[in-house]
Amino acid sequence: MSSTVSARLIPLGITVGALGVLVLGWALLHRAEAGVNKVPLASAPKPVTTIVARETTYRDTRTYVGTLRAWVEASVGPQFISAYVDTVLVRPGAKVHRNEVLATLDCRNASASSLAVAAEARAIDARQKAIADESTRTSGLLDGGFVSPNEAEQKQSQSVSEEARLAAERARVTTTTLAVDDCVLRAPFDGEVSIRSVDPGAFVRPGTPVVTIVDRDAVRMTFEVPESDFGAVAEKTPVSIRVLATDKVVFGVVSRRSPAADPETRTVHVEVDLDNRSHEIPVNTTGEVKVEVGAPVTAVAVPLVAASITGTSASLFVVEGDVSHKRTFEIQGEEGSSLYLQTALPPGSRVVTEGRAMLADGDRVVFKDAPFGNPLSSGRSATPHEVAP
User: How far apart are the two ends of the chain, measured CA to CA in Å?
Assistant: First the structure.
């Protein structure tokens, strides 16, 4: 009897187990499908970061790169002789005064030659005086018939010849004296030593600089501008100059402007004089000149990262409600990280700064506003001219 009951329970158990497996499989399938997002991703709002465009004023600015030069600069070295350097008495940074000795050369040969020429000049002078006196006496005897006219003329010609030799020897004395003076190198003006080119023992020739002196009481900012900007750098035009060596900004006006462009580079030379009696500005360093052009105009400022620039136009994504629209606006200019657009973009508009690469016109977005630093009240040209000196 028991074996018959067990035989009947086996199919029932198999059936119940199968049903349990089916129920468990259905439950697992339902759970998996519940975690699947059946909403198309393209229709979901895209997260972006936006800023609010601000109304401001913009003034076009030209930027040029130039060199800050000393008002007076001189490379001091021998002009007439070649010799070994005996002493160099100064080093870079030393302050010197006019006629102060900077260096000396070993000019023993020049000194000896100068002494020899001076002695020869004295000998010729003595002979010339003797011949001149003899010629005078001979001329006196001519009236009494004691000498012939020919003899008197010969004595006079000898006197004139010796006088000419004396003049030539005196010129040689002057030349050798200049050579001796060239052995002592002196400061041509009050200033500072900028370069020490050689040390004692070096051999120098005429034109070889030994020491370079600069006068920094006044500084010239020199730069070149394209010929198209000739009118923007007229005399008395205010400029600002950032000294790269000190990262300070100084102000001045255009002091002079060349009336002609360089025929090779087609650029115009411009200079700005700066008072530097405090000696804060180092010379032969780089400066960045900014010149404002035209009158200030009303503009709308946005971050530069919010736009794609093509020529004079910028493309932005403007958020209206929860939809982004791609718009193109004319550029007024740019300055630093700010872009200045024409007022066709209404102030207060939200423009996308982050996430714009994945947007298309008409996409829905969910945005988060980010702060926008205060845009500058003036800017520079979107295509600035930067010309090396």
Answer: 116
What tokens does 340 get?
Answer: 């200045």
Indicate whether 76 pLDDT > 50: yes
Number of domain units in the chain: 2
Tens of pLDDT, residue by residue over 215-274, are 999 999 999 999 999 999 999 999 999 999 999 999 999 999 999 999 999 999 999 999
Q: What are the DSSP calls for 231-298, one per residue?
A: GGG-TT-EEEEEETTTTEEEEEE--EEEEEE-TTT-EEEEEEEEE-TT--SPSSEEEEEEEE-S--EE
In a domain, 318, yes or no: yes
Say what angle helices 149-181 and 108-142 make with each other, to 10 degrees: 160
φ and ψ at 197, to 5 degrees? -85, -35
Choose among 274, 272, 289, 287: nearest CA to 235. Answer: 272
Position 220 in a domain: no
With a CB cutoff of 8 Å and minimum separation 6, the contacts of 338 are 301, 302, 303, 304, 375, 376, 379
The pLDDT, as a whole number, for residue 156 is 67
Give residue 6's pLDDT.
Answer: 63
Question: What sign results for the dihedral spanned by CA atoms 222, 388, 246, 238?
Answer: positive
- The residue segments making up the domain with residue 350 are 47-60+295-369
- Name the range with the highest mean pLDDT among 14-18, 104-108, 265-269, 384-388: 265-269
